């Protein structure tokens, strides 16, 4: 069974396009070229996750796509879902380049470092302009780890693990 904790927040339907029920969807900090191949999504409707099959999907810019669902074939029917959030199974997004995710998706993930081993669990995201930080707690310690491609090597959404290569001395600050 799927719930928000096992899903990846993909984006939001922001407006209709054309008369056949297509949408413009703004991707949530994911570039359109990084979008995985998907056949279906979950639309959050009044707090419930409802599956929909995709009829077609095309790039509509760097951070947006044009998406059309089966069974939604008129602009009037499409208007009902404007503003709804879209989710996909987390295992569909499982790449080392996935730092474009919404940072709230990472709370609860474990940090494992190549050199230092298990560091701890992400408890918060400090959204500092141009330098976001993972706040990681373990064994009565807190660490601030930069969200940076040079440090973060792999993200596994299924297991909720982030593999890192933390520079020497960073954990001593």
Would you write up a description of this structure?
The protein has 173 residues and is mostly beta strands. The chain has two domains: 4-92, RimM (Elongation Factor Tu (Ef-tu), domain 3); 103-172, SH3 type barrels (Roll). 3% of the residues lie in helices and 47% in strands. It contains one helix and twelve strands; from the N terminus they run βββββαβββββββ. The protein has one helix at residues 75-79; strands spanning 7-17, 22-27, 40-45, 48-59, 64-69, 85-89, 110-113, 117-126, 133-138, 141-146, 152-156, 161-164. The strands form two sheets. The chain has a six-stranded antiparallel β-barrel. The protein has a six-stranded mixed beta sheet with strand order 10-9-8-7-12-11, with no helix packed on it. The longest helix is centred in the middle third of the chain and has 5 residues, at 75-79. The radius of gyration is 18 Å and the shape is elongated. The N and C termini lie far apart (42 Å).
């Amino acid at each position: 069974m799927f719930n928000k904790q096992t899903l990846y927040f993909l984006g939001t339907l922001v407006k209709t396009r054309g008369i056949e029920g297509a949408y413009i969807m703004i991707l949530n900090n994911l570039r359109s070229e990084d979008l995985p191949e998907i056949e279906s999504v979950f639309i959050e409707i009044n707090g419930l996750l409802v599956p929909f099959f995709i009829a077609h999907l095309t790039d509509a810019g760097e951070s947006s796509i044009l998406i059309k669902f089966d069974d939604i074939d008129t602009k009037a029917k499409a208007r009902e879902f404007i503003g709804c959030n879209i989710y996909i199974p987390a295992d569909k997004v499982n790449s080392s380049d996935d730092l474009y995710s919404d940072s709230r998706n990472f709370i609860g993930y474990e940090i494992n470092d190549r050199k230092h081993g298990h560091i701890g669990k992400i408890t918060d995201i400090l959204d500092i302009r141009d330098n976001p930080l993972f706040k990681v707690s373990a064994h009565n310690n807190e660490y601030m780890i930069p969200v940076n491609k040079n440090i973060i090597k792999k993200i596994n959404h299924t297991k909720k693990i982030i593999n890192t290569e933390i520079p020497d001395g960073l954990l001593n600050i």
